[in-house]
Amino acid sequence: MVSLLAAAAMFATIDEAAISGLRHAAAICDPRYECGGVVRVVEGGFEASPPISSKLPFGVDLGEFYGPDVVADFHTHICSIHNKPFADFFSTSDAIANQGLHTVGYMLSMCDWNIRRYDPAQDDRDDEEVDFHSGRVLYLTIGHIVGWVPTRFFAMR
Ligand SMILES: [Zn+2]
């Protein structure tokens, strides 16, 4: 008999592994802090690391996870009043990190609960114009939606 844990840990695609990692993060991470992890190539597929947090509202240091077997990383964007306008976009430093490391980035916005994917080899960087009430305009990376996290908030509507 295959153990449930072993069966759940291995995925056929990077997308599935990252989506599972972010659903895990949404379930267990403190919503005040950004949380993230990496996807690794393993024999026969891909697996997601457990989510970790640097206990900061912005940014999570995934340095301890990085190695040659890492193909993607994933992280949450919290939905605080301060970062609500940016939560659905990859930040400039998110996009630069994935470009530099040649990894695919996955991000869960805890505002719209969509999971977005940014692949530096395929997607444009800084392709979305984000307007603020101040009149300031910023260009951020939108990537594209590959999944979502079901939440109790949706059930309440
Ligand atoms: Zn980010």
Query: Cα distance, first to last residue?
Result: 40 Å
**Overall 3D shape:** globular
- How many structurally independent domains? 1
Name the hetero compounds present: zinc ion
Average of per-residue pLDDT values: 89
Radius of gyration: 16 Å
- Tell me the number of helical segments per DSSP (H or I, 4 or more residues long): 4
The percentage helix is: 10-25%
Q: Structural class given helices, strands, pairing? A: alpha+beta
> How many runs of DSSP E, i.e. beta strands?
9
Query: Can you write the helix and strand succession as a string?
Result: HHEEEEHEEEEEH
Low-confidence stretches: 153-157
Could you tell me the strand content as a percent range? Answer: 25-35%
What would you say about this model in short?
It is built from 4 helices and 9 strands; from the N terminus they run ααββββαβββββα. The chain has helices spanning 4-9, 14-28, 92-101, 152-156, and strands spanning 35-42, 45-48, 52-53, 70-77, 104-109, 114-118, 128-131, 137-140, 144-148.
